[in-house]
Amino acid sequence: MKMRLHSIFSAFVLALVIVSTAAGSYAGDKPLNTVAHGEIYGDVFFTLGDSKYSGRINYNEIYTYTVNFDVGVLSSGKEVKFCRLYVYWVWSQKENVGVYPTMEVEVKEGETKEVLSPVATYTDTKGFVGKYDYFSGVYVYDCKDTLKTNQDSFSVTVKNTDPNGSTFCVQGIGLLVIYECQEKEKKQNEDCQHIEYWVNEGCDMIYAEYGITPEMATSKIFFDGALDLKNVKRAYLITVAPSGGYVSKGETAHNRLYFNEERGWLSNLPFLNHLLRLLFGYGGGVWSDVYIANDIAQIGVDQRDVTEYLKASNNFAAIQDDHDYMMVTNAVLVVEKEMK
């Protein structure tokens, strides 16, 4: 009887997933969008600064949430070509009902302050009626004109500005910067590689529970475009997963990262997958438990060399939950090329 009830419940949840993909679910149904793709002489970096979990932020209270960032790499006059701030928020609710947060995000550089407006918002929910069905997401801010060259640091402050009394928590703030070198530095500085980059962002909540299998709780990320592999020196992938790898009791986190891996039967056999690649020259990369977070920031960040798995076209990554729970929010592929 218990097994039959479980099967009925699982089928009910699966039906809800099918009809509610537009609203979101625990399945990988909201793939990240490519918002920037280009080729420059420069480099890419992503940092969480000194981010920490905020706890509940109330309206207009004295306590505000601030993150400090070290951007000393820009102090030698490099030009910022692309810059995004990502505010990762969770538990947004009013009287136990999920709502979208109302916040003010202010950037401070020295004595100069500027309030930013979001350029993109990404949200997701678990997709079925239940306890704690609060909204989670990412508010994105363009900081290209704010982050000047020849500076070492700046700070970002978040404030709850909803007079109606809703609250939210911030898991952390991410800073992504793509910078270009001055002409004279291009062949002299190791921080000024000839690179091609893809920036993907969004919010895809995945969780292999409530009838959702790990295969369903997989978020795929595509990097469209052709590459001349003979001209590639190195390739690396940066991925960000708020809540990914965070386990309050210290158990092993359950998640996987794939790069150009399409054969599901090898997903649990990374050694065999690697052996087949050595012998026959095909196969992608599979890594387990790559997101390790803690109760300070609660954001899993991974940077991984994927050079040997790179393809001439149709490159993609996938992030899978296996009873961990996470939001997939960022993926950046960087390909370093031989200098021309």
Approximately what portion of the residues adopt beta-strand conformation? over 45%
Number of H/I helices: 2
How far the N terminus sits from the C terminus, by CA atoms, comes to: 69 Å
Structural class, from helix and strand content?
mainly beta
C-alpha-based Rg, rounded: 21 Å
Biggest β-sheet strands, sense, barrel: 11 strands, antiparallel
Mean pLDDT value: 84
What would your notes on this structure say?
The protein is mainly beta and 340 residues long. The chain has one domain. The chain has two helices and 19 strands. The strands form three sheets. Strands 1, 2, 4, 5, 8, 9, 11, 12, 14, 17 and 19 form an eleven-stranded antiparallel sheet that branches. Strands 3-10-6-7 form a four-stranded antiparallel sheet, with no helix packed on it. Strand 6 (103-109) and strand 7 form a beta hairpin. The chain is globular.
Question: Could you write a compact summary of the structure shown?
Answer:
The chain has 340 residues and is mainly beta. It is 9% helix and 45% strand.
